[in-house]
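Example 3.2
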Amino acid sequence: MIIGVEGFEKHSWPSVERTRKFYERALTSQFELREINAATQLPEAQFDAMLAFVGNRMWRLRLHPNTPLLFAMHGGPILNHEFLGEHLSNLQSCDVLIVNSTSDIEILRRFFADATPRFCHLPLPVDTTLFRPRDRDECRAILPIDEVDYIIGYVGRLLPQRNLHQFLRMLAILKHRLAPRRIAGLIIGNYWVDYPVFNYATANYQTYIGALLRQLDLVEDVIYFPAKLSDE
């Protein structure tokens, strides 16, 4: 079988690129992949299916090709309500929307009355040869900590929408409630001052968090790693 793929070049966002590599490994193990680009005549192209990994071109086809269309939704059900409302009616029941969570399916179902495309629930992949539980004492030996009784972790983009500020307030409350036992916060992530999807208050967020750490007396209680750690 031949699968046409659109938007399958290396992506600048690490999370999307990680997912793209997963798709690539999975699909090439069973199918022949052919790139769809601006020169491809989509309605006449001979594919068994066509996958739009990123990009909007396949959403805007004037004629539906005689083959199923597959769309990797990523965060679309949350972020692109207006666009989806305009284009979901172009889909047929043979098409497939690939989503990462069951909540995305519930959101998308509300856009349709009767006939709907198919939904494929495909959670984001995890390489269990790399990501697996490690021994507690081994982890504590690796981290730059002395005598800490409890460690609470935060992993994610350092954006207002990810609520790092509330995590720090929670940490401060626990610090006082658990005293004299010591608690530490482990934060892994990067500040995105020009994040194009959620750009609300991102430019000043790092300054705000620095001031909040001092206000909550947590400067010595937080361990930080940038998100550019290798998988290993």
